[in-house]
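Q: What would this chain look like folded?
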Amino acid sequence: MSGTGTSSPTGLRRAVTGPLLFLFILGDVLGAGVYALIGEMAGDAGGLVWLSFGVALGLALLTAFSYAELVTKYPRAGGSAVYAEKAYRSPLVAFLVGYCMLAAGVVSAAGLSLAFTGEYLTAFLPVPQVPAAIVFLLVVALVNAWGIKESLRANVVMTVVEAAGLVLVTVLGAWVIGRGDADLGGAFTPPEGSSVWLAVLGSALVAFYSFVGFETSANLAEEIRDVSRVYPRALFGSLATAGAVYVVLGFVAPAVVAPAELAASSGPLLEVVRVAGAVPPELFAVIALVAIANGALLTMIMASRLAYGMARQGLLPAPLGRVLPRRRTPGVAILVTTALAVVLAATNELIDLASTVVLLLLFVFLSTNVAVLVLRRDTVAHDHFRAPSVMPVLAVLSCLLLLTQQELRHWALAGVLLAVGVGLHLVMRRLARSSSTSASAA
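A: My prediction, written as structure tokens:
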């Protein structure tokens, strides 16, 4: 069982148990997006939000099979970029996979800043959204720069709060249904003016944003005890748990509040709390703000560390690999990723940013799902999870299906980001070649 047992003297400590991994993935998946995006989903799918969540869960599980196989097969090689390098032997493809994850993180943080400064914040403080979003991103950057230990301590508290918020709104919605003040037909109201299944699929694309995050658990492969047994259980268990919460929430919300009202609100779950009347809306608004802030903080921690790591490998400009002397955090990477998020937040289009995140991650998932099949001929000495061959194939088809639902403006934004990535890769290769030539001449 090489690579799956105890820690090696030179490797990372295998301290992550099954329950800890389950909670890590669940906290990443039960993210802040649902606090704002359930209204956008109701605008697409009417009252069939619960069905859209179910479809999105099924699509996420297909790709999860590929991660379960690759993480347990290569427990000392984490991340989609590494799998791409092993499968395709192309530095450009491997770079673009890592870059897509980086770009998705920055775009996601921009979207969450707009969610933070919507109706959840204006319940207390009537401020213009874009300037408030910029201030929010700067505060997140300061916490990120303060230190990783301090950031993760804050994350533990905020994860508990955000999970409690989703449970609270579900219980309040069920209470409204139980007292007879809800319209159960609202949860079955189809969208107007479009095909039901096309509308549900389009809404599932938005719902998919709420499930992404599980892929980051691949980076813990070297720190998980008995990874071949523990990782698949924790991965599928956490996705199923999050999916159950989302499906129930997707049923309760349009039953309590008309889908059109949910769609018109930038704080849709706040509307459910207002109808229930048992909890002050301001209290729930605080919970939602904490949840969204936690999502943004986790996202920017990931994005800044990924930029730092790619710079240390010579894949991005070297200054991104510099750290703050006292705090030992990647200061330049935090500054640059925050600046990019600020520019994107200025667009003031939450749904466009969320859809672009999904588009970028679909490229990553496509690469990973194909890599599973390509790497089947590569055998390893230890036992590992093996996905049924049909699962990666269905996962590839599901990614292609979701890509067809993307609008032209989302392709345009993703295209610009990818073009910047290709340009950076070419510049870095040229610099590396010049450096190598100079060293040889010397």
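The two ends are 47 Å apart (CA to CA).
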